Amino acid sequence: GLSYVNGMPSGGPHDFGNLGDLTNGKPMFVGRRCHEPTPAWLEGKVADLRIYTRALSEQDIRHLAAQWKSE
Fold first, then answer.
1. Would you say 3 and 16 are in contact if contact means Cβ atoms under 8 Å apart?
2. Can you list the positions of beta strands (E) in 1-71?
């Protein structure tokens, strides 16, 4: 899959399959890469976070980013 920043692809493609079962009862960290050998925290702020039950299309992401920029 791809990750996006401000509606534009950022890095990738990523294999999110190696994250394992996300319904495991463990805490979810936002802004931290726990699956890497030396986890690091995001340097900055997260302005908006959303969790969906489906993968978003590139068109969905661009639409959401355009809405956020106009606010």
1. no
2. 4-5, 8-9
